[in-house]
């Protein structure tokens, strides 16, 4: 019986030690991230927050020297809007072009004061010179306008731009 208790105790200590190492590793990565999180920006219609990625066993994990991962939340601070979409871009090292990281249709109707997590974890390469988040939407008076079956509603856009922290990857 004492061998079983000793073996069990050793297994628990080893397991806890590995979890603590994994947690410490994540803290090191978060301490050296391209963007210090959490951070938010707001405009007349939207507020966005970029935070630490929500990591689980199936999540994309940060890779030191290659990319960091973040979460993205969106809140409607203006009027109710329609056909909301978000696109994210990173400015490439040559600063002449931008690479789209993702394009996500968010909601067909987004009410005032409503918020949601758009991405639980998305990567940004450590070579990024800037992160740009573009939010697109339609307003009530334009929603549903069509000509010959084609959507002709005017699309509004708000751009949020973030520069990385001064740090060495």
Question: What can you tell me about this protein's structure?
Answer:
The longest helix has 30 residues, at 2-31. The protein is built from one helix and ten strands; from the N terminus they run αββββββββββ. The chain has 169 residues and is an alpha+beta fold. The chain is globular, with a radius of gyration of 21 Å. Strands 1-2-3-6 form a four-stranded antiparallel beta sheet, with no helix packed on it.
Task: Tag the structure with descriptive keywords.
about 170 residues, alpha+beta, four-stranded antiparallel sheet, single chain, globular, about 20% helix, 1 helix
N-end to C-end Cα span? 51 Å
User: How would you sum up the global shape?
Assistant: globular
Give the low-confidence spans: 18-30
- Total strands: the figure is 10
Helix content: 10-25%
Widest beta sheet: strand line-up: 1-2-3-6
Structural class, judged by helices and strands? alpha+beta
Summary of the model, kept short:
This protein is of the alpha+beta class and 169 residues long.
Walk me through the topology.
Elements: H1 2-31, E1 39-42, E2 46-52, E3 67-76, E4 81-91, E5 98-110, E6 115-125, E7 131-138, E8 146-147, E9 150-151, E10 156-162
Antiparallel strand pairs: 1-2, 2-3, 3-6, 4-5, 4-7, 7-10, 8-9
